[in-house]
Amino acid sequence: MELNLFPTKIYRFKSNIDTHPMVKSILDLEVGKDLHYGQESGGLQGGGWIYNTTEFDSVRLYIDKTIKETFGNDCNILDVWASIYKKGDYNKIHNHPPTNPMYYDSNLWAGVFYIKTNKNGGRLVIHSPQNPTNTEDFYPEDGELFLFNSFTYHSVTPNLSDDYRICIAFNFTTNS
Predict the structure, then answer these.
(1) Which of 9, 66, 114, 174 is the right S-S partner for 140, CB 3.0 to 4.6 Å?
(2) Can you tell me the distance from the alpha carbon of 5 to that of 54, in angstroms, rounded to the nearest whole number?
């Protein structure tokens, strides 16, 4: 499904991947060695190497296939990281380079694949490039993939549940 917001293109896809077996692998990453704490907003990030393990083959293949079908060409994943949000953790408004909106049609994109979510685990918020207070909120589900141009400002609302919210985030270029 393609959504044009503000007029920012956001792609949202639902896979049939059983992500539950992947949760333990991500939670087993060591703080300090593989993960670091996010700014004052909390959350743990890092351990991107896990994306290239056999256990994550289905996710990697799904992302590659979805990007190829969406953009009509292959992609080059530039960097990957796992994000773990505990109760109260969130992510402030940010974007990924390039930060200049004139690059709306750049081939640098960002993506997030959800491993573990829950109703109160926080929403993905997409902000208008014209007015960041104008937003669209999404309640992601396990196995869901979002893709958007890297200039797109986004944030994550606080996790209000006692359970984890886990995702794999990445930056990529399309080979156009």
Answers:
(1) 114
(2) 36
- pLDDT tens digits for range 150-175: 888 999 999 999 999 999 999 998 87
Q: Are 150 and 105 in contact (CB under 8 A)?
A: no
In sequence order, the β-bridge partners of residue 138 are 124
Strands (E), 57-123: 75-85, 91-94, 108-116
**Report for 26-40, 94-108, 131-145: range of highest mean pLDDT:** 131-145
The residue segments making up the domain with residue 119 are 2-174
98 upstream amide cis, omega within 30 of 0: yes
CATH number of the domain to which 55 belongs: 2.60.120.620
- Report the largest interatomic distance among the alpha carbons of the chain, rounded to a whole angstrom: 43
